[in-house]
Amino acid sequence: MERKRVINLLIGPALFLVCSFLLPEAVFTTFAARAAVGTVAWMAYWWITAPIDYAVTAFLPIAINAICQLTDMNAVIANYASETILLLLGASIITVSWDETGLDKRIAARFLGLIGDNLRYQVIFWFILSAALSSVLPNAVVCATLTPIAVAMLTYVGEGDIGNSRIGSKILLTIAYAAGLGGIATPLGGAMNLVTVDYIQQLTGEEYIFMHWVIKFLPIVIVLVVVNILFMIRDVKKEESLGGSRDYFIQEYKKMPPMTIEEKWSLILFAVATILAFTRSLYQDLLPGLKPAYAFIICAIIAFLIVNKDGKRVMVWKSAQKKIIWELIYIFAGGLAAGTLISSTGAAQNIGEAVARMGLTGGIVTVLVIITVTLLMSDVTSNTATAAVAIPIVISIVQGIGLNPIPWIYIASIGVNLSYMLPTSIRAVPVGYGLLPKYMLKEGWKMTILVIVSMTITAYLLLTYWPAFSMA
Questions:
Q1: Among the residues of 160-233, which ranges form H helices?
Q2: Which end of the chain is more exposed for a tag (fewer CB within 10 A), N or C?
Q3: pLDDT of 164-182, one tens digit each?
Q4: CA distances from 464 to 410, 456, 458, 459, 460 (A)
Q5: What are the extents of the domains in the chain?
């Protein structure tokens, strides 16, 4: 075993021990809270340095909780079979059928023929598409459906080894960033926004009009989109391409034989699952149990019934399971489990209480602290958990200094929705497809600083010069 790997293996548990026994008790009041932070530190270090497989690291919350009994084990292991995990599994199975039928190559050629091969245009296209969809749909659904399409395109042009492909890594990271950002645009962008809306309704005693959110967050979204896109294309040369040209890919598409029946069924199943996920509000009263995750699982089951013109089954489990992105599923689950430890042990609450003791009095420093803390919390726990913990603390802080809490709730929602550095939440999706966590961290810490600075300035200007921002 090489020395560097041994050192990295040992540093992981060392970080856990340091956090568990040396973090100040004045902040993290219980051993369970300190150990939860230590678990996240251990996982983050191993994910970034990769001394063992990423999926193996994802099981650390179970192992640590079994030994230290930090919280209810049922709450931890539930993350490994959550609805989101089932959604990712279903989507992965369906996209395996693309590979089996050759549909992936057809989709790739079609997309390249429509968008072109210019890398800047590709980045902008995937960003806008992902952000627009995630403004009204669950971020995980958007990321899980767009990523395999992008991977199919990248594989077609020889950039399928995402971990060793600068182009592939950039496009997958773009989709993940945008899926997270888009959620801030409307209250329907995620459960974390609905939690926030509920707190606003409790304060005002009135029904919240969703259009108010859209209007207030429009300038914030515009700034975020510009900042994110400029960051992602900053090192892309104007003429840099994926190889070939639009005309070339159009000709390649035309050369392909007519779509086979098995290709059509693979495409139909993915389209049906996606449409059902995207239109949930239209049928949820009629079929309350048919949530997006289960729609994908049902279509995944049907995928195993597809036969070709000779009557031979296109997919059988023995071969299909080798192509399912199991790593994606376990990494996502591990991130959820780590977030459960942070929330259920009181570590997140301890962080919020520490902020409350900082003596904030309003102004730009208060804006900076709230955005920074909520954004960093969202990196280690779920956005919804961050909202549930952070929003009431922000309300108490602001009311304590005699200010209207409504605009500060909006400001906290910025950080609640955004996170960039660790392969937790939807950022586990590109990692499952081969993106290296150390690349995510390398780009993510820069993006985090850029967003904190730009959002602090933007939010402070809105708070100071736009009176309507302070109204519910």
A1: 166-182, 191-204, 210-232
A2: N
A3: 999 999 999 999 999 989 8
A4: 14, 12, 10, 9, 6
A5: 81-320
